[in-house]
């Protein structure tokens, strides 16, 4: 059974830092691209960061670029998100999300097929 | 950025009724669109990928259609567990995916 379990819940002051982690199990972690997606209280979903299966390629939403760093340890089946210079608007539930590759009539497609339960970050003074 | 607009914001229906949810993209995403269900206090669950393909384990009452800029998720006969929030998501700008704002399906 695929499982993604986030940790690192915290209350942080504006300008502070926090590291979120995700423990993956039930699949060959090193073969999958991974993402962090967040959801502010009562709001919709916002993609935050992406990392390729090898860790070689990363990408970030403009709202977090330069402040957040996504990384992975394939030997430990873990995904991380280092968050610095935190702002009130970063307050959200953060989901660890797996991408799966689909070959759709010769087109390469990636869809987010498994999500964790989320871990809550609150940025407040 | 590709913006997805979902309608309606809220759908009030009774169990057994048919639900029709809409998602419109600000520019063509071809068929690169997915639908997710989110129940309270749970992470989203993939229902439909590439506009019309049911994900593994998803019941046949869920179906998706559309291409380009206009997409529809249909639930043919609502079960009690289907009352939830539904999001569409485009992958045309992958990995910079974007989501619609969601449609809440609630019990009438």
Task: Summarize, please.
The complex is a heterodimer of chains A (125) and B (108). With 125 residues, chain A is an all-beta fold. Chain A is built from no helices and eleven strands.
Question: What is this structure's SSE topology?
Answer:
The complex is a heterodimer of chains A (about 120) and B (about 110).
Chain A: E1 3-7, E2 10-12, E3 18-25, E4 34-39, E5 45-51, E6 58-60, E7 68-73, E8 78-83, E9 92-104, E10 107-115, E11 119-123
Parallel strand pairs in A: 2-11
Antiparallel strand pairs in A: 1-3, 3-8, 4-5, 4-9, 5-6, 7-8, 9-10, 9-11
Chain B: E1 4-7, E2 10-13, E3 19-25, E4 33-38, E5 45-49, E6 53-54, E7 62-67, E8 70-75, E9 85-90, E10 98-99, E11 103-107
Parallel strand pairs in B: 2-11
Antiparallel strand pairs in B: 1-3, 3-8, 4-5, 4-9, 5-6, 7-8, 9-10, 9-11
Which structural class do the helices and strands of chain A define?
Answer: mainly beta
Q: Compute the CA-based radius of gyration of chain A.
A: 14 Å
User: What is the rounded distance between the termini of chain A?
Assistant: 40 Å
- Along the chain, the helix and strand elements of chain A come as EEEEEEEEEEE
Molecular shape of chain A? globular
Strand proportion of chain A, as a percent range, falls in over 45%
Would you give an account of this structure?
The complex is a heterodimer of chains A (125) and B (108). Chain A contains no helices and eleven strands. Chain A has strands spanning 3-7, 10-12, 18-25, 34-39, 45-51, 58-60, 68-73, 78-83, 92-104, 107-115, 119-123. Chain A starts with a strand and ends with a strand. The mean pLDDT of chain A is 96. In chain B, strands 2, 4, 5, 6, 9, 10 and 11 form a seven-stranded mixed β-sheet that branches. A four-stranded antiparallel β-sheet of chain B has the order 1-3-8-7, with no helix packed on it. The model of chain B has no long low-confidence stretch (mean pLDDT 96). At the A-B interface, strand 5, strand 9 and strand 10 of A face strand 5 and strand 10 of B.
